[in-house]
Amino acid sequence: MMLEGKIAIITGASRGIGLVTAQLFVKHGAKVIGVYHDTQVESDEIDYYRVDITDNEAVKEFIKDIYKKYGRIDILVNNAGITSDNLTKNMTNEDFVKVLNTNLVGPFNITKYVGPIMQAQHYGSIINIASIVGVYGNIGQANYAASKAGLIGLTHTWSKEFAMKDGNVRVNAVAPGYTMTDMLSTVPKDLLEQFKKQTLLNRLAEPIDIANTVLFLASNYSNYITDEVINVNGGMKL
Ligand SMILES: NC(=O)c1ccc[n+]([C@@H]2O[C@H](COP(=O)([O-])OP(=O)(O)OC[C@H]3O[C@@H](n4cnc5c(N)ncnc54)[C@H](O)[C@@H]3O)[C@@H](O)[C@H]2O)c1
């Protein structure tokens, strides 16, 4: 029980890495508030809310309601994210901005309200789900790479801002390698095979590989770790 009694918000908790993280948090005693946008989800153990994280007003109301209902927010996992791949020369400005809006503005919208709550209660752990692509860049992913590199920049900024005044708020990022979720459904099989060969551990990640690291960062087992980016990529370089 690494998160006994903790209140955790996880965005993008309806499937993939977010869902597995939410289930793991529940197993470790947390009350999980799961945010999703598209598919309708129901669960006895996770409190789901449908919120578009790109909508600042909706996020503001959501956080206000959550704080009123649960009284505190101990953990925030900024996990929701999308891709819309194309070579830069073919990428529309709409597709560039759409990905930035979800992957970068979305976490900003939530954290600007959650960070001060954590700072005032002198306790909190924020985990941003970045990507190996934000660390190395990748062909056909200018929008995604920019968003995830930006999220790493926000991690370094928020760890400083929310630690002020004895805030005791830790902010870290996890940069996963290729992970078997719906997000990879548009990636050709032969490319996935190539990525596997580029990985020292000779396999792509399962969501639980990422969730275990998020659990560690959310828990007090990491309570002197902040401002870090942890690569969880099986030794892959891009
Ligand atoms: N799968 C991978 O290979 C991989 C690798 C590195 C990083 N990541 C990152 O991990 C995170 C989770 O990825 P995944 O593979 O589980 O994705 P996924 O596509 O399986 O799930 C995405 C989740 O985000 C939510 N979401 C999307 N737009 C939203 C919005 N505007 N408001 C609220 N929720 C929204 C969806 O409802 C869904 O729950 C993402 O940030 C992704 O960029 C994934």
Q: Can you describe what's shown?
A:
This protein has one domain (7-232): NAD(P)-binding Rossmann-like Domain (Rossmann fold). The protein contains seven helices and seven strands, in the order βαββαβαβααβααβ. The chain has helices at 16-27, 56-70, 93-121, 132-136, 142-161, 189-197, 207-218, and strands at 7-11, 31-36, 46-50, 75-78, 124-129, 169-176, 229-232. The protein has a seven-stranded parallel beta sheet, sandwiched between helices. It is globular. The chain binds nicotinamide-adenine-dinucleotide (NAD). The site of nicotinamide-adenine-dinucleotide has 30 residues, from helix 1, strand 2 and helix 3.
CA-CA gap between termini? 36 Å
CATH architecture assignment: 3-Layer(aba) Sandwich
Provide the low-confidence segments as ranges. Answer: none
Instruction: Report the count of strand segments.
Output: 7
Q: What is the CATH topology classification name? A: Rossmann fold
From the helix content, strand content and strand pairing, which structural class follows? alpha/beta
Order of helices and strands: EHEEHEHEHHEHHE
Number of continuous helical runs: 7
State the major sheet.
7 strands, parallel
What does this entry show, briefly?
The protein has 238 residues and is α/β, with parallel strands linked by helices. The protein is built from seven helices and seven strands; from the N terminus they run βαββαβαβααβααβ. Bound molecules: nicotinamide-adenine-dinucleotide (NAD).
Keywords:
238 residues; Rossmann fold; 16% strand; alpha/beta; single chain; binds nicotinamide-adenine-dinucleotide; seven-stranded parallel β-sheet
